[in-house]
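Q: For a teaching session next week I want to show students how multiple molecules come together into a single three-dimensional assembly. I've collected the sequence lines for a complex. Could you give me the predicted structure tokens for the whole thing so I can convert them for display?
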Amino acid sequence: MDLKALVGTIEIPDISKFLPELILLFVGFLLFTLELFIDKRIKRAVLSVVSYIGYFSVLISLLIPWRFPGDTFYGLFTNDALGVTVKFFAVLITLGILTFVNNYFTSKRSFYGEFYYILAFTLLGVFIIASSYNLVIIYVALELVSVGFYILTALLRGSTISKEGAFKYLILGGLSIALASYGAAFLYIYSGSLDLREIFTYKGVDIHYFILGLVFFLIGFAVKIGAVPFHFWLPDAYHGAPTPVTALMASVGKLAFFVPLIRVMPLVEERFSIVWTITVGTIATLTMLYGNFVALVQKDVKRLLAYSSIAHSGYILAAAAVAHEIGIQAVVYFLIVYGVMSAGSFLVLALLERNPNWRNQIEEFSGLRFNMPYVAFAFLIYMIALLGVPPTVGFVGKLLVLMSLSFEKLWWLAFIVIVSTAVSTGYYIRLIVLMYMKEKNKDVMVDRVSPGEKLSLVAFTVASVLLGTLPSLIWFFIKASSQNLIAR
Amino acid sequence: MEKASFPFISMSIIIPIIASIGVLIAKERYAKYIALFGTALTFLISLLAISWFDFSKTNVVQFVERYPILSDFNVSLHLGMDGLSLLMYFLTTLISLIAVIWSIGDEKIKDRLKEYYIAFLLTESFVIGVFTSFDLVAFYVFYELTLLPMLFVIGIWGYKLRLYSAYKFFIYIFISSLFLLLGIAALSVYHYSQKGSFSFNYFDLVGMHIPTGFEIFLFLLFFIAFAVKTPIVPFHTWLPDAHGEAPTAGSVVLAAVLLKMGTYALVRFNLGLFPNAAEVLAPYLVALGIYSIVMASWMTISQTNIKRFVAYSSVSHMGFVVTAMFLLNLQGLNASIIEMFAHGLTSAGLFMVAGFIYNRLHTFNFVSLKGAIKFMPVFAVITATIAFAAMGLPGGSSFWGKFLTVVAAREHNTPLALLVLAAAFFSGVYVLYFVKTLYLDVREEGILKHFKDIKGYSLLAFVMILIPIFIVGLFPSVFMNFFDEFVVSFLKSFFKIQ
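A: Of course. Below is the structure for the complete assembly, covering every listed component.
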């Protein structure tokens, strides 16, 4: 190809497709600069105000790519309904979590301005994962998110468990990305392309390369989403991290790490669908059972919720085993609402941790209703939502999971979903019983809860019920995502 | 389906919720009056609904209201009432009112009154939702929702073993209904494979041609949930704990209304949606029902705790309901439905008797209860009346249920009828034992003489139970009228029985 023809193929990137990312990049650098140069006394206020304004403008700018779906950057960056949906909810949940950051780190005497720009760049990584089919781009963005999380996890500098969690996360995260890249290499050998769409539609003969590549690809992501048996970092990282960061990892992080998997689902060919179902179904089985059984014996509520997060990865993976439209809808819906529930429940812990003597032990929840009735009620709602009692979001999620499993007649997996939900009843109900039916054994008071924190908790609580009672409120996001993927 | 002229059903679902918000906002000492007002208003609406109801067409679903929830999956809040729903709806509003009246007079209910009345009001609202939903998701939502307020009622205001019982109650019913959820999901997916669209609507799902093996599978998924809820022996072990440890009003609502959700759903869904599977499995289920009656009666006699005694007697009555239902003929289904209603009245009455005695003597132990009601003449008469009505003495409410069950069994064959009769005999034995202990046994009478007889709100609650007991016993056609047409057309359309 001569130079002229080459120049002729150069396309000018279509800014309407990646405007939110640009804004986010700008916000990140702005926060970085401000953090360096601004006076210490007003730093906190300025950084959070700039973050709020920045994220709100990102939220508004997301309306534009919704109107202009398509590829840009030579197909490296794909803008579609799924991407916009994930970005939209990621930003919304991040906004909710952001309200807790200031007070939490202040009470832990560990406030660092770095938090704000690292958060912005992490979110940028989430945005890029959500909108690419190219393996290299996905891996780079994955690292952007992960490195962000490693640093945020270690942000409680005085605490050893925080460092321990970060180290475990770092080492296993590094391993996972190595495995996933290895998988990418195999997939490249098989198809001569790094684009997932081309890899999965390529009718090659060297199927063993494809299978090897796919398995490594799946293992890489299984580590990131905390699927058993690749989950070992997760409880420690979730436990050690500052609680708002845990909320972020459980909600936004999980949302992001599942996206490449969702993108692959409609591409799985008929001849590979049995391999897909068995592999994903087996991982889902292990994850659900292990997560729930281990959560049952936890004494620390933060660890308990971390294991419940593993279990929920399992439920979502169970739906992902069904590579059909209904499966995609179930996965997308469950991911979004799990983000809401988990962020809410971890934020309650973040609030309670501001008590000087609070250790997150399960018996400390005894009689919480008498100390903090509103917080206890919010936590009650999150617990029944995580358990899947109607009319909360968790119920609709589980209904969709069971519907997708019935669609493929995967009764064994459906029964495992039932069994693991049954096991989970034990620990969620125990917390409810402790909060409402036992006497209080000490006074728990949190002073100066800011209006932003109240608003965010109310929003998460209302969303946990409302999106389950009237799922149609967000259903067009989910429908558009799945139809967009299927139609391709 | 006829459109509603007045939204009776949604009003009766919403009014208790509004009243519970009122309780939440108002001061604690007004809580009981707001709750009383809310339940009384709902009861009045149910009476209005009955007067509005077209009794010449009890097989037709009337007062239909429909609000879409998720149109992609055809999920909607589809409310309506046919004769069966109407009867259960009336029972719910009546019992809820009685429970609130009783709670006002109950001296054990002293603290956390707001939450207490909120729990009862919400239960009423959700149970009405269960009995009037013709959408499977909406049904499931209401069915599960009733668990939460009851969990709190048992766990907070219950007796000694309340936490254990609350756990057990929630875990049993929640886990069993997960199977129901899978059944609902599978059924709607089957509808998709046949008609090309998901649907959870009862009227879409009814009359689908399902392969028999798959139909039996679905039948069993539904049956697990309802068998635990009803309960049928051997799935009954949660019941004595939950009913035995709940506060009196909680036991009343649990036994009178919440158990009916199981039997109602067995008729509506297990028979209505899977008639072929029901016909295949009917003999086994009849056997299970009779086993349930006999076992529960024996367990009843061996109880030393009067509340657990009443609880086990509920299990044995539910055995009659299940037996009669799966005999699958006209008398059987009639017997089953009238027995549901009758048991709602008598078990509520017996639990109130137990609660009243506890408030006087502070024990549930039978040994200390000997002759307990001797010096309270009005209360003694009430107790004996309710107990004999529960036994099935002619003139009492349970007579027609048991009598028609025997008739229905005779239609199959005589030995079966004799078996049912023998089972009924056992249920007579425990009632006689109950009356004998409370009434006739002798012990030192020093403290008994100082007992005040029943009066006030408690008496009112008993009177409200006794009136319908006698109406059912003496003029059964008043209530049989609710569902006779329904039963005929139900059997005709699903089981080809004239």
